[in-house]
Amino acid sequence: MQVILMSIKPKYAEQIIRGSKTVELRRVAPNLDKSAVILIYESAPVKAITGYAFISEITKSSPSEAWAQYAGKAQISKHDFDEYYQGTDQAFAIHLKEAARLLEPISLADLRSEQILFNPPQSYRYLHLQAFGEEIGQEIHAVRQRAAASC
């Protein structure tokens, strides 16, 4: 299973975990397949991995097309959207599903105690799920199995 750690502002991370934000907009898209999982790293002041979501699709468009199609699903203001996409002509929409909160958040301090040189990514970084312990892997696999059984 492909895994990325994605830095997300706390207000947006909470919306993803609650399920009201189903699209994460980015200027650069990760190279992932549809079964990939995103570990949600909430940036300051939280500074912890607090949840995860699965990718259902990644689409590319212009910023104006992305706004027209995904403004509601991305839960972002027009001002913040325009500021984020200023100076670029492409937008990537990462469609999310099956988002959930981790049973126990993993703090930045804990991450650094396990991986001495760990620094949160500015946007995202590719990971090996095993690096975050067996419990998280089991939790994510259990959610994936329940979702597959309900289809």
TrEMBL record:
Name by which UniProt lists this protein: ASCH domain-containing protein
Organism superkingdom: Bacteria
Residue ranges occupied by any ASCH domain in the UniProt entry: 6-73
One Pfam family from the record: ASCH
